[in-house]
Amino acid sequence: MAQALRDRLLRFAAPTVLVLVASLQLYLAHTHDLSPWKGGGFSMFSAVDRSDRRIVRCYLETPRGNVPVAVPDSDVRKRARAMPTAARASRLAQAMARSVWVPCSPDDREAGGPPDGCGHSGLRPLSSGEPLPAGSSPIAFSRVDLEVWKVGFRSSDRMLRAQKVITVTAERR
Amino acid sequence: MSRTQPSGLKQRAAAASVVVKRSLETLLSDANMLDVIAAMTLLLLLLHTEPEKYLRVPVTVLSTAGLLYRPLARKASFWFVVTAVLAAGHFTLWHLIDNHKYLMTYWCLALACSLLMEDPRQALAFNARLLTGLCFFFAVLWKATSPDFLDGSFFHFTLLADPRFQHVTEVVGGVSPAQWAANEKAIASLSRFDSVQTAVQLQDAPRVVAIARFLTGWSMAVEGLVALVFLWPDGPRASRGRDAALLLFLASTYPVATVLGFAWLLAVMGLSQASGFRSSRFLYAVLFVLLPLCDLPFHRIGGFLFRHLSTARGVIGG
């Protein structure tokens, strides 16, 4: 009896783990916006929404108004794109709020800087341990607003649409 | 030239092919199957593990040890250690890894568990069938319930935006390089961190929709067939059907969607359960060897030849 049970457990161990993980992925994808391309659900090549196509938009609230800034690539950013829960998005927003933001130099613009470059805002965060560039002063801001968007495509009108998944705010301390 | 030379060459070629055939039959026989599967799996792990050092280093050490010292790869404890390393590493990389890394982990667990059973080869074949069937079951379930997929939107977008399909879209679909570049620009403009856009329209050509619909139907049909035959109760006809379906899937998918790690893993799992007809084992083994060639840009070579032949025909036609 014990031997039969042992054999059955050994025989079905791997398939059972597969079913459990895939079922969990199905649940998380439908309730927590887990990217269909991640999580072990075998749902790749079934949806346009992929974590590397998800958009992160970040705004610093400055005295001159809301300024969009590029969020540097990091593990926190990748996790927030893969499954943008309130906790993950907040962690990313807080990291941006803790950063010191400075104007981009001409070299930064040439080198590309964070994803998509410094962009129109012309701002970038200082790296950990990086000193303040000469002649530069940190940008004053009171708050960070962070948004994560996913994309969808409709064949009938060939429109690629972005849909906001979550917005979080982090205060500058 | 002597008349005896051609027949001498023929005889030598025939003799060589008999030797090769016998060697392959011995290699892919039931007696050696576990060793072959273990070696293929270790090669797969060696070449397709994530680059993070805390995963790559132990997997490389373990895989190399198993390949060089075969008795190690016959121990269940060895495969439990490999599974534990993969599981721990993949757990920390859940947000980055593709689905086949999960399947790789389950496969190593299946190897470990099977080696503890009275008939490891039979147990492994059972696991290969069930893992393959379940993997395709979930793939089909997602496709059937995804709003993007059934109406052709997923493949329509993929044909207009995925660089792997660019040459198919340009050469067969009729989308011009300028349209392709415009689509790249449109997608980039939507994705920029400072964009205020929430929608962009992509450029298209009439044949692209038809190709998308064909690919949608084909994917559902082939993957559904694989899921069905692999989850069907075992039997001689079911066995032949399984091999035909999986080999068809491998041959039709991976030359285009080149996820080599997944293809290799499916070939190894297919080989583990192949008993339908002798040639199926040979075909899985051949695919395992030839699949890396899919990384060659055949679509670019094909597109290049197609364009130049079309131009030549136009010139000759006047």
Biggest interface, and residues per chain? A-B, 60 and 61 residues
| Count of alpha and pi helical runs of chain A | 4
Report the end-to-end length of chain A measured between terminal Cα atoms: 64 Å
Radius of gyration of chain B: 23 Å
Unreliable residue stretches of chain B? none
Provide the domain count of chain B: 2
Low-confidence stretches of chain A: none
Portion in helices of chain B: over 70%
Spatial order of strands in the largest sheet of chain A = 2-1-5-6
Number of strands of chain A: 6
Number of strands of chain B: 1
* Topology pattern of chain A, helix = H, strand = E: HEEHHEHEEE
Give the fraction of residues assigned to helices of chain A: 25-40%
- Residue-averaged pLDDT of chain A: 90
Structural class of chain B: mainly alpha
Largest sheet of chain B: none
Strand content of chain A is 25-35%
Distance between the termini of chain B: 47 Å
Oligomer: heterodimer
Characterization of the model:
The complex is a heterodimer of chains A (173) and B (318). The mean pLDDT of chain A is 90. Chain A is elongated and about 80 Å long. Chain A has helices at 2-31, 75-82, 86-98, 106-111, and strands at 55-62, 65-69, 101-103, 123-125, 143-154, 159-171. Chain A has 173 residues and is of the alpha+beta class. Chain A has a domain at 51-171. In chain B, α11 packs antiparallel against α12 and α12 runs antiparallel to α13. Chain B has 2 domains: 28-116; 145-318, no CATH class. Chain B has helices at residues 4-27, 30-47, 53-68, 76-92, 99-114, 120-145, 147-150, 153-161, 166-171, 177-191, 206-231, 236-253, 260-273, 278-290, 298-317; one strand at residues 199-201. The interface between A and B is large, with 60 and 61 residues. β6 (159-171) of chain A pairs antiparallel with β1 (199-201) of chain B, so a sheet runs across the interface.
